[in-house]
Design goal:
The protein has about 80 residues and is mainly alpha-helical. Helix content is about 70%, strand content about 0%. The protein has a domain of about 50 residues. The longest helix has 24 residues.
Amino acid sequence: MTADVKAKQRRPTNVSLDAELLQEAKKLGINISRSAESGLRDAISMKRAELWKEQNKAALEASNSYVTKHGIPLAKHRKF
């Protein structure tokens, strides 16, 4: 995406931040909006991973149980 397209997709919003944290970030020249976006992306990624694990818990447990009982499928073909 070009910078113009990204800029058009941005939306102003209000957030409440720790005053000391905000002051320190400004003092260090940290872009608050970009840092908030980065943190939000990380939080979304972690939450999606957590949800995926919850949604696939039964399948993962079944797979682990199978390997425990029968060993790794095709293990005889492994070269290591």
